[in-house]
C-alpha cells in the first residue's frame, strides 16, 4: 500500500524582499483567475540553480516531481545545498502548499524540519513535550503514557524542568527528535537537524529510525549529507538537483550517481616537469589488463595504478605510497611497497611504477586514489598527490561475475573472493 504519492508537484517562489509578491502581480493573478485563465506567473521563472544569476524574479524551487513511496520504506533524499530537499519535506509535511500538483498521504505525519520546531523558549522542557506532542497530533493521554520514554531517550532528564531557551542546540534537537520519534505516526519525516547532535546521539537516532521503519513498519523520509547514514538507514533514495528529481532507485545506485555527478572520473593526470625535492612527477594514470587507459572497470578486472617520475638525487631509497577512498570518504586501503630489500633509485633516471589491485577485491562504486613517493629512511614524502585519480567499479550485467545468480547489493567497501574450507 502507498504511504506517499506526489503527482507533478512544483513550488515557485518570488525572489527579493519578504512577501508573497507585489500588488500588481496579485491583481494580475486575480484577473486571470476570474476569467478562468492560467496563472500568468506559472509560465515564467528560472531553474533552481543558486550558483548562477537569473533573469527572472521567480524561481522554481521544485519542478514536476513525481514519485511513490510504499508503506514501511525508508527513503533518503540527497542533493547539494539548495537542491530543493527541505522544500520537498515542507510540502510533504503540509507546512506549505505546492504551486502545482497534488500530494496524497496515507496516515499521520510526524516531521522534524528545524531545531526546536514547535518549542516555546519560555516554557520548560516538560511543558514543551506536551505542547510539541499536541502540535504533532498526540493526545494528552498518549503523551503522558510515553513521557518517561521520551525523556529517557532525549538524555536531558536533569534539565526537563528548565526553560528550553537555556538549552544548547544539541539539547533542543534531542528533545524535539525524541517527541517526534515516539509519536505513533505512520510517516516520520526528518531533515538535516541530526547534524546538530553529537556522534552518540546521531547513532541513537539512526537506530530509532531503523526500528521505526523495519520493526514497526512505518515510513521514514530522511534528508542528510551524511552518505554513510543514508546508506545504513535507507533502502531507496531520491537524488534532487536544481529542483528536479534526477533519479529514484536503490540507495547504493543513487549515492554513486550523486557522487559521479559532482565529481567527474579521472583516468590520467599529466604534470609536465613539476619538480619537488629533486623529484619530478610526470604523470599518473589508470590501466586495465590490456594496457588501455580507462576509469571504468568491471569487478572481475584487475586495476593498474601507474606513476611516471624522474629522480634527481643519487642512490635514494624510495617507497611508493598509495591510498584509496570510497564514496563515503572512508579510506578503503593504504599500501606502501615496504619490501625487506632496499630499493635504490639512481640519479637522473626515469621510472615507471605500476601497482595492481586484484580482481574481485573492490566492491562496486566510485573510488578516489592518492599517490606519492616517500623517503625510505626518514619516511617523509618527496611528492604526494591527494585525490588525483577517480575510477568506478561496476558489475557485468548478464555476464559471468562473482555474484552468481545474486542481483542485490553487497555491503561494504571490499568484497574479495576468499578461500572457504569446510570439514
UniProtKB/TrEMBL annotation:
Which GO terms of the molecular function aspect are on file?
ABC-type transporter activity; ATP binding; ATP hydrolysis activity
Check the record and name the PROSITE patterns matching this protein. Answer: ABC_TRANSPORTER_2 (PS50893)
Pfam family example for this protein?
ABC_tran
Q: Which UniProt keywords apply?
A: ATP-binding, Nucleotide-binding, Transport
Instruction: Choose one Gene Ontology CC annotation of this protein and give it.
Output: membrane
**What InterPro entries does its record include?**
AAA+_ATPase, ABC_transporter-like_ATP-bd, ABC_transpr_TagH-like, Bact_Polysacc_Export_ATP-bd, P-loop_NTPase, Wzt_C
Q: Which Gene3D superfamilies match?
A: abc- transporter (atp binding component) like domain (2.70.50.60), P-loop containing nucleotide triphosphate hydrolases (3.40.50.300)
In terms of SMART domains, this protein maps to: AAA (SM00382)
Q: Where is the ABC transporter domain?
A: 42-267
PANTHER family on file: TEICHOIC ACIDS EXPORT ATP-BINDING PROTEIN TAGH
Q: According to its UniProt record, which protein family does this protein belong to?
A: Belongs to the ABC transporter superfamily.
The protein's name in its UniProt record: ABC transporter ATP-binding protein
Amino acid at each position: 500500500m502507498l504511504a506517499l504519492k506526489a503527482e507533478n508537484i512544483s513550488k515557485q517562489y518570488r525572489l527579493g524582499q519578504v512577501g508573497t509578491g507585489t500588488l500588481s502581480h496579485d491583481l494580475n493573478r486575480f484577473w486571470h483567475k476570474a476569467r478562468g485563465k492560467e496563472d500568468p506567473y506559472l509560465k515564467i521563472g528560472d531553474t533552481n540553480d543558486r550558483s548562477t544569476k537569473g533573469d527572472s524574479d521567480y524561481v522554481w524551487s521544485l519542478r514536476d516531481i513525481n514519485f511513490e513511496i510504499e508503506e514501511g520504506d525508508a527513503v533518503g533524499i540527497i542533493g547539494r545545498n539548495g537542491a530543493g530537499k527541505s522544500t520537498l519535506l515542507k510540502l510533504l509535511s503540509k507546512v506549505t502548499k505546492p504551486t502545482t500538483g497534488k500530494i496524497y498521504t496515507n496516515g499521520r505525519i510526524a516531521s522534524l524540519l528545524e531545531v526546536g520546531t514547535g518549542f516555546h523558549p519560555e516554557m520548560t522542557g516538560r511543558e514543551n513535550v506536551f505542547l510539541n506532542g499536541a502540535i504533532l497530533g498526540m493526545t494528552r493521554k498518549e503523551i503522558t503514557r510515553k513521557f518517561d520514554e521520551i525523556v529517557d531517550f532525549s538524555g536531558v532528564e536533569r534539565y526537563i524542568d528548565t526553560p528550553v531557551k537555556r538549552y544548547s542546540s544539541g539539547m533542543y534537537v534531542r528533545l524535539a527528535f525524541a517527541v517526534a520519534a515516539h509519536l505513533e505516526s505512520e510517516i516520520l519525516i526528518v531533515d538535516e537537524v541530526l547534524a546538530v547532535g553529537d556522534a552518540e546521539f546521531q547513532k541513537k537516532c539512526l537506530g530509532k529510525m531503523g526500528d521505526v521503519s523495519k520493526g514497526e513498519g512505518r515510513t521514514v523520509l530522511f534528508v542528510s549529507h551524511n552518505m554513510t547514514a543514508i546508506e545504513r538507514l535507507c533502502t531507496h533514495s531520491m537524488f534532487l538537483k536544481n529542483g528536479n528529481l534526477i533519479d529514484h532507485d536503490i540507495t547504493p545506485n543513487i549515492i554513486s550517481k550523486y557522487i559521479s555527478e559532482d565529481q567527474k572520473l579521472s583516468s590520467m593526470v599529466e604534470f609536465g616537469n613539476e619538480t619537488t625535492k629533486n623529484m619530478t612527477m610526470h604523470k599518473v594514470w589508470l590501466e586495465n589488463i590490456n594496457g588501455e587507459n580507462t576509469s571504468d572497470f568491471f569487478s572481475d578486472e584487475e586495476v593498474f595504478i601507474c606513476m611516471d617520475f624522474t629522480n634527481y638525487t643519487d642512490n635514494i631509497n624510495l617507497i611508493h605510497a598509495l591510498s584509496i577512498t570510497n564514496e563515503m570518504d572512508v579510506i578503503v586501503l593504504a599500501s606502501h611497497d615496504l619490501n625487506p630489500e632496499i630499493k635504490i633509485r639512481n640519479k637522473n633516471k626515469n621510472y615507471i611504477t605500476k601497482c595492481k589491485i586484484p580482481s574481485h577485491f573492490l566492491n562496486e562504486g566510485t573510488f578516489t586514489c592518492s599517490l606519492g613517493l616517500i623517503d625510505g629512511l626518514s619516511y617523509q614524502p618527496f611528492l604526494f598527490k591527494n585525490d588525483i585519480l577517480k575510477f568506478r567499479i561496476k558489475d557485468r550485467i548478464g555476464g559471468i561475475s562473482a555474484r552468481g545468480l545474486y542481483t542485490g547489493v553487497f555491503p561494504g567497501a571490499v568484497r574479495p573472493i576468499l578461500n572457504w574450507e569446510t570439514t
